[in-house]
Every structure is written in structure tokens, then in C-alpha cells.
Write a structure and sequence with these properties.
- The complex is a heterotrimer.
- Chain A has one domain.
- By secondary structure, chain A is mainly α.
- Chain A contains four helices and no strands.
- By secondary structure, chain B is mainly alpha-helical.
- Chain B has one domain.
- Chain B is built from four helices and no strands.
- In chain B, helix 1 packs antiparallel against helix 2 and helix 2 packs antiparallel against helix 3.
- The longest helix of chain B has 34 residues.
- The mean pLDDT of chain B is 85.
- Chain C folds into two domains: 43 residues, no CATH class; 95 residues, no CATH class.
- Helices cover 63% and strands 12% of the residues of chain C.
- Chain C is mostly helical.
- In chain C, a hairpin with a 3-residue loop joins strand 2 and strand 3.
- In chain C, strands 1-3-2 form a three-stranded antiparallel beta sheet, covered by helices on one side.
- Chain C has seven helices and three strands; from the N terminus they run ααααβαββαα.
- The chains are: A mainly alpha, B mainly alpha, C mainly alpha.
- The interface between A and B is large, with 48 and 46 residues.
Chain lengths: 101, 110, 164
Amino acid sequence: MENFFLTISLALGFLVLLSLYRGVVGPTVLDRIVSVGVIGTKTTVMLILMGLIYKRVDMFVDISIAYAMLNFIATLAAAKFFHVRKSVIPGVRFYKEREVK
Amino acid sequence: MILTILSVLLIISGIFFFFTATVGLLRFPDFYCRMQATGKGDTLGALLCLSGIAVYNLSDGFTLSSVLVSIKIMLIAFFIFIANPTATHAITRAGLNAGVKPLMKEDLQK
Amino acid sequence: MRYITTFLILFLNWLIWSGMFDAFHISLGVISCALVTFLSHDLFFKEKLSYRNIVETVRFIKYIPWLLYQIVLSNIHVAYLVLHPKMPIEPSMVRLETELKKDLSLVAYANSITLTPGTITADIVDRKHYIVHCISKKVADDLLAGDMEKRIAHIFEEAGYKED
């Protein structure tokens, strides 16, 4: 059974690498934030799988919930920032309002 | 034994949905479509994987500590179930407000 | 009543997450839960509790299995779109009118839209319109039929909707 969990963890790690591609290449900043959020969700599952492999699930569960909450708050904070800034182009601020005037 | 088989099935289907979410993140042509793939695939993938692990955790026997750990794992799954759509909605709204143009089907047919 | 309910919810969470059942840890939990309840009793429930809250909770729990079924359907739909070699997507932005009034039902409806097949809520304008991103035409037609809105209105007992 341990081998099974190790394989699943490796598969998740491979998927993390694939999502990292969008984080590096992604055309806008928002794509990168989405990629970070996706990686965070996979890491939450991976942490509990690590707990199963080391036979200390009760400890790793607490780490995992802390990671999930931090990931959620980070995504929300970044979304709020770009919601107020109204531009995803670096160096250009309040892009929309200037266009209106 | 039944619990182990059930957990293996749950974890493998979870991995499948994680896989489709990641491929969607890579393949879709525009920011909003990528949100479609990740916002749903990740939620269900995490839900299935975590419930699979919770079921496997019970297969050694129903003691107080193992039941507690399983409840905690299901609480994490519930948290992700609430938090992931909210984060998806927040980022989509930020993108709309920041002027990222959505790709319409007329653009795709060119 | 609000104090007692908030305290019970917090204390149940404390018991699950601490996992220690000796007198020292439980008394710590009682002290900290009481402090948090005293400081923020109006966060969970804005209005006074009544019999209605119990009805809403029970109906919401009944609603969850249907939502899970919809989520599985939506994931299979997205998986089909992703793995299809030609990617038959037709993205569009739809303006969806709603007659829901309460905060909680608006939030529940928005989250349900985000979780069900191929649709994401992007914005709420003036509590009247949702702006929804749909990934294919079939999905947009399903959404505009308004089956889910009726279910949400039934849960939270909105005015203007009859009970089945």
C-alpha cells in the first residue's frame, strides 16, 4: 500500500510540474496566480499522503489545513489587489478610468 | 479489505480529475476558460482524494484517534469545497474588472 | 441564543481539532471559545435565531447530494471538452436575471453556479443581475432554464416562489 501512495504522490508532483508551465509562461499575471492556487490544492493532498507514508497522519493533517487556509487567503488577497488596481499590465495603473476620460 | 479497494478507487478517480484540470489549464486558449477547468476539476479532485484517504485511514480499525483524524480530513475537504469556488469567483471578477478581454466564440471561428 | 449557538459551534470545532480530552485542554478551550464568542457573536448570525434557521439548515443538507451530482456531471463535461482533440468550446458571457433577495441565498446561488456544469459567476450587478461565463451553448441554455434558482428559493423561503 505504501508503494501505491508513493506512486500517487509522484503523479501529483508531475502534475505540479505541468501547472508550473502556466505559471512561468502565462500571458497575464492572473494566469500565474491561478497556477499558484492549483499547485497549492495539489500540495494539500500531497502533504496528507506524506503523512500516510511516514505513519504520522495526525500531525500532517494540521499542517495541511494551515496550508489550505494560507493558499485561499493568498489567492483572495491577490484577487482583491488586481480588482482595485484595475490593470494587469505592469507599470500601467487605473487603465480603465483613464480610457473613460 | 472493502475499505481499501474503495479508497483506491476514490483516489484514482480524484487523480483523473486533477489530471483533466491541469490539462485544461495548459490547453484552453483564454483566461476565463482556464478558470472553468481549474475551478471545477480541482474541487472534485481534492474532494475525492481526501475522502479516499479518510476511508483508508479507517481500515485499520475504528479507534477514537483514527476516527478523529478521518473527521479532520473530511473537514479539510469541506473547507476546500467552500473555498475553491469563492477563490475562482474572486479571481474571475478581478480579471473582468482589470480589463482582461474574454474570448468569444466569434473569435474562435476565425 | 446567538451566544449559545456560536459557542457550541466553536467548542465542537475546538474538540475536533485539539483531539485532547483531559481537563486542562478542555478548560483552555472553554475560556478561549467564550472570549471569541463574546467578541464576535454577531458575525455568524446577523439576526435573531428562530425556528426558520433549523428549517433552512435541514433543507440545505438535503440540497447537498443534488449539488454533488451536478458537480460530478460538470466535471465529466469539462473532462470531455479538455480531452477532445478539437476542443469544441463556445465561450460566451451571459447576463442572468435573478429575483432572489437575501444575502445568503445570493451567495449560495453564485457558488452553486460556479460549481455546476461549465459556468462561472463573474460579477453581481446591483443585486439583480449575475454576469456568468459559459463555456458552451448547451450549458448556457440549461442555466437560463432556471431550475437551480427555484431550488435555492425553496431552501431559503424567498417570497414569490411557491412551495412544491
